[in-house]
Sequence to fold (389 residues):
Amino acid sequence: MFNFPKDFLWGAATSAHQVEGNNKNDWSEWEKTNAERLSKESGGKYPPENYISGKACDHYNRFREDFDIAKSLGHNAHRFSIEWSRIEPEGGKFNEKEIEHYREVIKALRERGLEPFVTLWHWTIPIWMRDKGGVTSKEFPKYFAIFSEKMAKNFPEVKFWVTLNEPEIYTMNSYLHGEWPPQKKSFWKFLKVYKNLVKVHKVAHKVIRDINNSAQIGIAKNNSYFEGWLTPALNHFWNNWFLNKIKDYQDFIGLNYYFHNQTYGFRFNQNKNKEVSDMGWEIYPEGVYQVLKELKKYNKPIYITENGVADARDIHREKFIKEHLEWVAKAIGEGVDVRGYFYWSLLDNFEWDKGFWPRFGLVEVDYKTMQRKIRKSAQILSTLLSNVG
Ligand code: FCB
Fold:
């Protein structure tokens, strides 16, 4: 049933702010001033603590134990992000202890046979950079390049680099909808930031390439499967614009697939919603196939850098993973060069402005005791793994 290439990479993804705990960045600051409001807006359903990342999953201290679990599940790769604000807590001042920390993280992955996929920017920004204007600042690409260069120099053993995570989701939520820090609602800022991120990727690509000739460098792009008469326009602006801009500066495409989006008239998300996740996101496995087929034209290897479901009761996850992988296998069978799949996420974690309640993990986290419990559905990847290659 499943036909995957022999050296296919299987794993799960996390991001620093969502799992590490005790981060000090633009998000952690924002949480402090917005937790009450978000709790009120939930009608009191979730207390303010839900909206404060705090200790998160304490993955900063428990990464070895967590990677043991990934290994026990048969994974052979893992995607995580390096927290810029730890490495460079003040502009121009690098913290060697934190560099050492990530060296240990990479070493722990290698020791367990897990190929590291390193994301350099998963949305959080050091406070000093925020104060200079964050991603709107003309200086952002320069500072990000310095950070990227430092990382590439320190970690020559890392082959796969994801410079940016979902530039379109960040830009939309932070600068168009005004929901995420720094909560701006401006179409012009939105465009400016989106364009700035193109530059950011290009400079980061250059500095990493100069240091590491064999590095594979890309971004993690959130693409959606659109249906409806606006499809050509939406494909152009949402799915392809950024990728077209960076097409000569990427070695692979990272795909984050979550959405199907039926748009009739000007009303987005008119999905049938027969099956939805705890967050109300429609479960639509065929969409990953459609999106992959559309990406084929770039003629680059594709890694699915995120795909997952919020499902506290673990009633959808196994079927979700299996069916998405069936559609991925079909795309591969039709000549799409897909080389890896990372489930989002290894652990339950802090889901941005939603806080802790959405449960995406293959592994359940008890936030009081920090105990980990492997969900039943987590086995599906390992079972599949033992049947391929
Ligand atoms: C993606 C993000 C990731 C996580 C999942 C659910 O858009 O990249 O950090 O929040 O959604």
Remarks:
- The mean pLDDT is 96.
- The chain has one domain: 9-386.
